[in-house]
Amino acid sequence: MERIVCMQPYSYLVQAEKLFSIDPPIKASIHNQSQQNKENNTIVKKSKKQQYQQENRITRRKAFRNLPPGPPGLPIIGSLLELGSRPNQSLAELAKIHGPLMTLKLGSVTTIVASSPETAKEILHKHDETFSARTVPVAVAAQPNLEATVAWINGDHLWKKKRRSLAHICSLTTDSILSKNFVTKRLQNYSTLYLSEKELFAPRWTLDLQAIRRSSSLSWLQMDNPVYELLMAGSDTSAITMEWVMAELLRNPHELQKVREEILQQIGIERPVKESDIEKLPYLQAVVKETMRLHPTVSLLLPHKAQNDIDVLGYTVPKNTQVLVNAWAIGRDPKSWEKPLEFMPERFIKSSVDYKGRNFEFIPFGAGRRICPGMSLAIRMVNLMLASIIQPLNNCSVARL
Question: Is residue 101 within 8 Å of residue 312, measured between CB atoms?
Answer without folding.
Answer: yes
